[in-house]
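Practice problem. Given the sequence and the SMILES for pyridoxal-5'-phosphate, write out the predicted structure.
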Amino acid sequence: MPDSMPPPACYRLRLPGPTEVPERVRQAIARPVVNHRGPVFRATLAHAETLIQPVLGTSNRVLFFAASGTGMMEAALVNSVAPGERLLIVCQGQFGERFTSIARVLGAAVDTFDVPWGEAVDPAALAVRAAQQNYRAIVLIHNESSTGVATDLGAVGAALRGNPALLIVDSVSGLGGIEMCQDEWGVDIVVSASQKALMCPPGLGLASVSAKAWQVVNQPDRTPSFYWSFPKALAAVEKSETAFTAPVSLVSGLCEALEMIHQEGLAHVLARHARLSSALRAGGAALGLASFGAAASASPTVVAFMVPESLDGGKIVRALYQDYGSVIAGSRNRLAGRVIRIGTMGALNEGTILTDLSHLEAVLASMGHRTTPGAGLVAASAALHTGN
Ligand SMILES: *Cc1c(COP(=O)(O)O)cnc(C)c1O
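Answer key:
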């Protein structure tokens, strides 16, 4: 179907972000737009902050920006880095590379800690490397959406404890779907965005900054910036406002999404992500789609499947959309054509992944990749019901 045509009646947004926005959240976003400096919005923003602090595992003030995730990655670096200052950036996929590009644009001296794509970061090796230089910050991705690999942030935080460098983490595709204990793990800056496990449309970014990081942020040598200034954002949030016009509708939506998370129970939400992602992997394996990346570090929020040699990932993605209105992702990097990715974050349930597998089976069969009918569903059901 050409892009200029409307989406099919059945439109299943199964990307690793943006993700499907639940009806309740869409209703909240549809409320009348209010004064961004008035009492209604101030109450909403304060509520959003209170609700997201336990998801972050922090008692820090939370700074909100109208921004995509990349904007927040840049904001984290702009506020902590001075030109010429040395950073160690963990590169294990596309988003690690993006952090490197941003840091170079800002004039930082960038060292990379390279991890083969699909492998997990070894916290001890990272700590050894981090101790070899006087770094201003160690920068990494909590959940590398390009490879479907999650970082054991608790172990990284523990290994880096005592290192004076800041620990800066992008949890854009982790927060709300993977455990985050910012304060306990010693993470200095966490940035995230609304459109992944937080079940909102794109456009709302957030940052949580530790006391240790504020000392750096408040140094006079930071990269100059106006819109991204964390000190301005902090002064605003102390009045339950944002420094510049907040995306008020998205903040309402985020409040509603966070209410949903707390009603279900955060621990339950995180367990659901783990359970559904592993069942989807089991189902994919039964269809001949091996998971990309180290099994022990498999992401609870993004499943990356390797495409069988005889097939092309882009064609699978297109056929899923054309035949079923199921929108999944390919890869737009060195894995292009070889890996397809499905989001397992936010508002999904058992039926969601069983439907994914049913569509995948049919599309693969139409391309000549035949499996025992229902094999993916059987394997996924077995995984779901044994609790793996
Ligand atoms: C989605 C994502 C981003 C942000 O991308 P935007 O398109 O700028 O919102 C950043 N980091 C990771 C790990 C992501 O998955």
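Check your answer against the key. The two ends are 38 Å apart (CA to CA).
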